[in-house]
Amino acid sequence: MAQLVVERRDVDFVLHEQLEVEKLSKHEKFADFNRKTVDLIISEARSLAIKEMLPALKLGDEEGCRFENGTVTVPEAFQRLYDLLKEGEWIAMCDDPQWGGQGMPTTVSLAAMNYFDGANYPFMLHTILLHGAAKLVETFGTEKQKALYLKKMLSGEWGGTMLLTEPEAGSDVGALTTAAVKNDDGTYTISGSKIFISAGENDLVENIVHPVLARIEGAPAGTDGISLFLVPKICVNDDGSLGDRNDVVCTGIEEKMGIHASPTCSLTLGGKGNCRGTLLGKENKGMRAMFVMMNEARLEVGMQGLGCASASYLNALAYARERIQGRSLQATSKEAPPVPIIQHPDVRRMLLSMKAYTEGMRSIIYYIGWCEDQIRTSSDADEKQKYQGLIDVLTPIGKGYVTDKSFEVCNQGVQIFGGYGYTKEYPQEQLLRDCKITHLYEGTNGIQAMDLLGRKLGLNKGQSYKDLIKEMRDMAETAKTVGGLETLAADVEKAINKLEETALSIGSTARSENMMSAFAHAYSFMEVTGDTVMAWMLLWRAVLATRKLSDGAKKKDLNFYDGQVKSARYFIKSVLPLTLAKADIIIAGDDTVMQISEDAFGSK
Amino acid sequence: MAQLVVERRDVDFVLHEQLEVEKLSKHEKFADFNRKTVDLIISEARSLAIKEMLPALKLGDEEGCRFENGTVTVPEAFQRLYDLLKEGEWIAMCDDPQWGGQGMPTTVSLAAMNYFDGANYPFMLHTILLHGAAKLVETFGTEKQKALYLKKMLSGEWGGTMLLTEPEAGSDVGALTTAAVKNDDGTYTISGSKIFISAGENDLVENIVHPVLARIEGAPAGTDGISLFLVPKICVNDDGSLGDRNDVVCTGIEEKMGIHASPTCSLTLGGKGNCRGTLLGKENKGMRAMFVMMNEARLEVGMQGLGCASASYLNALAYARERIQGRSLQATSKEAPPVPIIQHPDVRRMLLSMKAYTEGMRSIIYYIGWCEDQIRTSSDADEKQKYQGLIDVLTPIGKGYVTDKSFEVCNQGVQIFGGYGYTKEYPQEQLLRDCKITHLYEGTNGIQAMDLLGRKLGLNKGQSYKDLIKEMRDMAETAKTVGGLETLAADVEKAINKLEETALSIGSTARSENMMSAFAHAYSFMEVTGDTVMAWMLLWRAVLATRKLSDGAKKKDLNFYDGQVKSARYFIKSVLPLTLAKADIIIAGDDTVMQISEDAFGSK
């Protein structure tokens, strides 16, 4: 069972055949990352994931985290895993070597993360926000802040978090009440309560650095008055040594449906009136700074979903090949022997659906990373803006759509195991439970849908969404010329045209006095966009595979390539027609959702 | 929070306005069950559910069941609940008063069960199979078996189970290997292992009666050679007193994703060679006997899903009304105050979707019970056959479709709570976990879909499915004449026509050499049938509500009736178009699912 995390052949396909990451090594920045090096990195990540992280997945779920007297103990096995991550420098894969990073292309780092998250993402949650926090320090920190914190964080010696949410300020960050008062020495005294802080307290690291959103005394209400502060758990002296314990106290951890191995902490800042922090960036520009981290954090959540889906699919596939149950439906004799359940049509349907989504989502997530690499290697401002726009538009898809579909994949992954899927004997039920949080944090998926319609559709006067449409249309055009894919290409083209029509329609309603009705369809719009992006990715894969098949692919690759064409065909023939119907529903714009009175929902 | 189980107004609406259960009291069998009595029953059930069962829901989840030395200890609070169930005679609501039953109409009993299951279905699992087991004894037992067991079981003094599944015989019951050897005294010696037995061992009752499927020595292979046996945990002497401990031993309980308060037991029969049972019914007719119980058991599983959905919806609604978060999207000023989240379009979308499904599913489940009541009160063989056919056709919908949609409702119920929904502070995550098993037991939902296409579509030469179509079409015809519902009625009629076309198409393929391709679309066919049944039920509700509104309904009912029209409109305008598209996919019959080779699913 050891290899059931991520399909290596598919990872290689996306990296080398779809996105051709080796081309990045032509750029001086990535000169070290030729095919051989990339393969080595993925092999190392795979080995670490399978040999070390995967065995701790169930252990972590069972053992969970313990809270006692302000301290949090994580599962015992995690200390070794964390040491291995540090030793392998996996925490700062893409970061600047100046700060201890490996300077890797983002696309390659995502493939490694796919393995890590697929094997044990509750463990990986100990490092994800650490990286985001370090990026904040790198982007907005003073030279002093960078010198004091950055290497310690990117090496993993210190942990890092993100302190946004408060009990009364969740989706509405602007409502936060944590306060900051400037001291004479330029530091700030912070006071407030924060909740839902992943790895906000733990025994893996000697210090934890909290970027904290708070409002400076007298600052405006709402998001315009929010500043960002750096608040270490243990104060850092000017020479870099650790000083006094800061007044940041963990008051408890959440009991949750899943990710039991990841402590979700409540923190009180300044309970004794003595929580000290330094301003990170400019006063009242905290929200803007946080948004810089948002794309990365949301993409990572998408990757967590994909990790669960990848593992659930491979486990289901292996089980369906082994589990003997029931005669073939076609068997004419009652004496016919029972068969592996992969031969039963409804099991195949679930497997093919899981396969198509897992593959398509892998392409979506890696592609977003690849856009980041285009920005990192480009010196052309227009090109940078184009790729940034694609990232911005695709982020709600990579987070909202991908995690929704990942949960559906994990749900089917339970089904294939029958009653066994509900037991803790197999990983399927944990993957489903762990996956569920991805719909909620870093902005609920409803928030993602609002982001797509309210911000991203009109971004750069709509140019970014148009750029996405153009990328998709170009691939459909290409596919039309590939023998055997003509009708699939035509179907995808139809969906792209319909998506464009839908975007115009809902975008126009969103700017009208009926804007609330448009937002009642925002979720569907995210789904229609996501489905079309999925169809694009699968068609793209099918184009490459069909060409390889007609160019005489190696025998060992024939099944894989054939599987690519089948995934595309399944999705385009059995899912995409629903997308068109969903688009028509959006365009029709029924507004019952807004018409119903609050009292008509039910008695109080 | 105490009342957040089931909407009483909606229960009353289905019982008294939609299904007019009082009419049943015209029949001598149900003469006692006039409106006043029915209302009293529902009020009592509601009170028991809310005051006693609901507080034990979370307790049961946390405490779970303990297995030690062959015994199973259930959560402490359950003993009192069980005593209350016994005292109130709730275990045998519909059964013959001769055996201690209350002789209630099935429809009314389902409304009571809706409350019980909505409050604490893991607890109710201790009685569900007990009732099924008792029905087996009543239907197939000898006079002696009935005399010895029936009253003890229906009173709840003894428990009951259903021993079908074995490690290698799950969906394929015919593969079971549990063996029975006839003894000289007419009893049988049983040996084998059974798994996944709900309440197979527990400390609530002094004895447990196991109906066991086993194969008599020399009987044919497969389902044709299966017989049913009655195997008590403690042997019963001829005078009804308890004798020796039988050789049935619990060897363990499953660790599961949810329903922790319900012990899922593994049982070994005849480990010491001394497990005694008596034949129940005829030799080799065990499967047929078990099928008699199947409809009831499957409908009950649907009710469990509905119970979770009902509770999740009411909790979400209450939370959305109370939780203040974010300005209105329409607010023009940044100073605008935050609003209850029920005002946000995407939250309303989720709530209305949850409401429409919960209501529609309630009607589906109660309607199936109402069909049972028609059989119970009819003396016309044709009428009995018609209603039995409707029950048979609707059972896969009431189980498979309803539990699928219930899970989706519970999933949205978590979303509305944001991050809090993932914590154990609120019931939402438990409802989602508990709901998941309903997709798996009593035949996975994939099995339900195969049952619909493979058995039920052609039942009575297709007449039963046609009867269903006719019932639906009659309602659409009626709705066309109701002011304001004309277009909704036309939409539903279109869906019914499309369903009929789809049934003909897939039914014909299922009988052809391409039958495997048809079964690859069986699940979609269940969904299309279910959606159309849902639309029928919601349209029916809207017809009644619209008439009441135009006839001058009481002021306190105006919101409720308006909510009925809105539920129907939402579903018909925002879901049903997808159903038509799904039907077209079935008719198009793409067979990629069968075309893909096993190796192309991924490496081994």
UniProtKB/TrEMBL annotation, chains A, B:
<dbReference type="InterPro" id="IPR009075">
    <property type="entry name" value="AcylCo_DH/oxidase_C"/>
</dbReference>
<feature type="domain" description="Acyl-CoA oxidase/dehydrogenase middle">
    <location>
        <begin position="162"/>
        <end position="269"/>
    </location>
</feature>
<dbReference type="InterPro" id="IPR013786">
    <property type="entry name" value="AcylCoA_DH/ox_N"/>
</dbReference>
<feature type="domain" description="Acyl-CoA dehydrogenase/oxidase C-terminal">
    <location>
        <begin position="284"/>
        <end position="452"/>
    </location>
</feature>
<dbReference type="GO" id="GO:0050660">
    <property type="term" value="F:flavin adenine dinucleotide binding"/>
</dbReference>
<feature type="domain" description="Acyl-CoA dehydrogenase/oxidase N-terminal">
    <location>
        <begin position="41"/>
        <end position="157"/>
    </location>
</feature>
<dbReference type="Pfam" id="PF00441">
    <property type="entry name" value="Acyl-CoA_dh_1"/>
</dbReference>
<dbReference type="Pfam" id="PF02770">
    <property type="entry name" value="Acyl-CoA_dh_M"/>
</dbReference>
<dbReference type="Pfam" id="PF02771">
    <property type="entry name" value="Acyl-CoA_dh_N"/>
</dbReference>
<keyword id="KW-0560">Oxidoreductase</keyword>
<dbReference type="Pfam" id="PF12806">
    <property type="entry name" value="Acyl-CoA_dh_C"/>
</dbReference>
<dbReference type="InterPro" id="IPR025878">
    <property type="entry name" value="Acyl-CoA_dh-like_C_dom"/>
</dbReference>
<comment type="subunit">
    <text>Homotetramer.</text>
</comment>
<dbReference type="InterPro" id="IPR046373">
    <property type="entry name" value="Acyl-CoA_Oxase/DH_mid-dom_sf"/>
</dbReference>
<keyword id="KW-0274">FAD</keyword>
<comment type="similarity">
    <text>Belongs to the acyl-CoA dehydrogenase family.</text>
</comment>
<protein>
    <submittedName>
        <fullName>Acyl-CoA dehydrogenase</fullName>
    </submittedName>
</protein>
<dbReference type="GO" id="GO:0016627">
    <property type="term" value="F:oxidoreductase activity, acting on the CH-CH group of donors"/>
</dbReference>
<dbReference type="InterPro" id="IPR006091">
    <property type="entry name" value="Acyl-CoA_Oxase/DH_mid-dom"/>
</dbReference>
<dbReference type="InterPro" id="IPR052166">
    <property type="entry name" value="Diverse_Acyl-CoA_DH"/>
</dbReference>
<feature type="domain" description="Acetyl-CoA dehydrogenase-like C-terminal">
    <location>
        <begin position="469"/>
        <end position="596"/>
    </location>
</feature>
<dbReference type="InterPro" id="IPR037069">
    <property type="entry name" value="AcylCoA_DH/ox_N_sf"/>
</dbReference>
<keyword id="KW-0285">Flavoprotein</keyword>
<dbReference type="InterPro" id="IPR036250">
    <property type="entry name" value="AcylCo_DH-like_C"/>
</dbReference>
<dbReference type="InterPro" id="IPR009100">
    <property type="entry name" value="AcylCoA_DH/oxidase_NM_dom_sf"/>
</dbReference>
